[in-house]
UniProtKB/TrEMBL annotation:
It comes from Phialocephala subalpina. CDD domains: AdoMet_MTases. Residues 34-46 have a biased composition (Basic and acidic residues). InterPro entries: SAM-dependent_MTases_sf (IPR029063). This is Related to methyltransferase. Pfam families: Methyltransf_23. Keywords: Methyltransferase, Transferase. It comes from the Eukaryota.
Length: 402
């Protein structure tokens, strides 16, 4: 499948306006510098117009905004009245060189002996803890989603790391997935030592020499031998029973002045106006939330990350919001590209998101799920400027340990 390029440097800068953002600083704390800069080791062996954007909270990739006062919908996304974009090829995976840490690898083959269910594979270490698969389909999706995040946020990180007092020496990426963020970050900061951890050993063997991966459960007590200058976690919304507990562990393992940064999509994904009401997509989102809840996980926590960070003790906490269209329906070149990638991402996630959650959480049969997903897929495929206007709310939240 061909996708449009998501590398910010390849996008037409004239067509992509600067983020029109209003960083939200937690009122109880001082304002931060919201500067906009732009080998697996096993620790544990084992022109329709949309409503007006909310001025303070919404940060959007807009070429222009129009308003429909009084509506409950407020996304900052404007339905495009023009033609859709053209897709182009993209593939930027980089893998080169063996990690200096590769000799420390002590992976037991049992953790590669993945659990198979309904044609997908899942992690073996702490089996059953995380509900999304770890197979090639999911790995491809995670890498696709990485590019989507890069385009949406404009950078691998938004915390003010440049000129960080004391320097950037030790970095941790929790729940690193395929490790693609950690690899690019390690390339960008060759003098920093980067560790990526995950329940699944799905990271590549060839990585920058300053990066290593570990199989680890971020919800276990942390036992690193040193503190970090920066801790990053992306797309953690589906992961933890207690996000607050994990953020508290991160607080304990940051050195004073160090930063935590969370980049996430907030469930449920929504419609930008009333056209999505009654759709299978809306029903599916509700079922996923219910299924996750039945399995002990709250997928609606991202809007609370800011409060969690404050509760954990962080200062200068900043929340920034981005809405990612699903389908190329929103006005603006950047939104059209984001929409194409948002659509590809969600289409590829349908089975992975649904199977474990809906069978185990709600007792649905695979056949029932497949029937539902036929309709959901149809909704996503018809999402366009003359049809339903779906989007994923996205957040970046960062804070500093005093
Ligand atoms: C949606 S993926 C995101 C991956 C990566 N952060 C990214 O943005 O590409 C979530 C990842 O979290 C991992 N995960 C889930 N629960 C975890 C836990 N308790 N500890 C460590 N990793 C976990 C999963 O195995 C999966 O790779």
């Amino acid at each position: 499948m061909a996708f449009p390029s998501l590398h910010p440097e390849e996008a037409d800068p004239a067509a992509v306006p600067a983020n029109q953002e209003v960083p939200e600083v937690h009122p109880a704390i001082s304002s931060s510098d919201a500067s906009d800069k732009e080998a697996t080791d096993v620790k544990h062996a084992t022109d329709t117009t949309l409503p007006e954007p909310q001025p303070v909270e919404d940060e959007q990739n807009t070429d222009g905004l129009a308003s429909a006062p009084g509506s409950i919908y407020s996304t900052g996304l404007v339905v495009d009245s023009g033609s859709d974009h053209t897709e182009t090829d993209n593939d930027n995976d980089s893998a080169y060189g063996t990690s200096v840490y590769s000799t420390t690898q002590s992976v037991r083959s049992s953790i590669y002996d993945y659990v198979e269910e309904n044609g997908r594979t899942y992690h073996r270490f702490k089996e059953g803890k995380y509900f999304l698969p770890n197979d090639e389909v999911e790995k491809d999706r995670l890498d696709l989603q990485h590019h989507l995040c890069n385009l949406s946020f404009g950078s691998l990180y938004l915390a003010p790391l440049d000129n960080l007092e004391g320097g950037l020496h030790n970095v941790l990426d929790i729940a690193t997935g395929t490790g693609i963020w950690a690899i690019e970050f390690a390339e960008q900061f060759p003098s920093a030592i980067v560790i990526g951890t995950d329940l699944s050993p799905i990271q590549p063997a060839y990585v920058p020499p300053n990066l290593r991966f570990e199989v680890d459960d971020a919800e276990d007590p942390w036992d690193y031998s040193h503190k970090f200058d920066y801790i990053h976690g992306r797309m953690l919304v589906t992961c933890f029973q207690s996000h607050l507990a994990v953020f508290k562990s991160a607080y304990d393992f940051l050195r004073p002045g160090g930063w935590i940064e969370l980049q996430d999509a907030s469930f449920p994904f929504l419609g930008a106006d009333e056209k999505w009401e009654g759709t299978a997509f809306q029903r599916w989102m509700g079922l996923l939330m219910d299924g996750a809840k039945a399995m002990g996980k709250d997928w609606n926590r991202v809007p609370r990350y800011k409060d969690y960070l404050v509760e954990a003790g962080f200062e200068d906490v900043v929340e920034r919001r981005f809405n990612c269209p699903i389908g190329s329906w929103a006005k603006g070149e950047k939104n059209r590209i984001l929409g194409a990638w948002g659509k590809a991402n969600i289409l590829q996630s349908l089975g992975g998101l649904s199977l474990a959650i809906l069978t185990k959480g709600l007792g649905m049969s695979v056949a029932e799920i497949e029937l539902l997903l036929v309709e959901v897929r149809d909704d996503i495929n018809r999402a366009g400027r003359d049809s339903i206007h779906l989007y994923a709310p996205m957040y970046v939240v960062y804070g500093r340990k005093p």
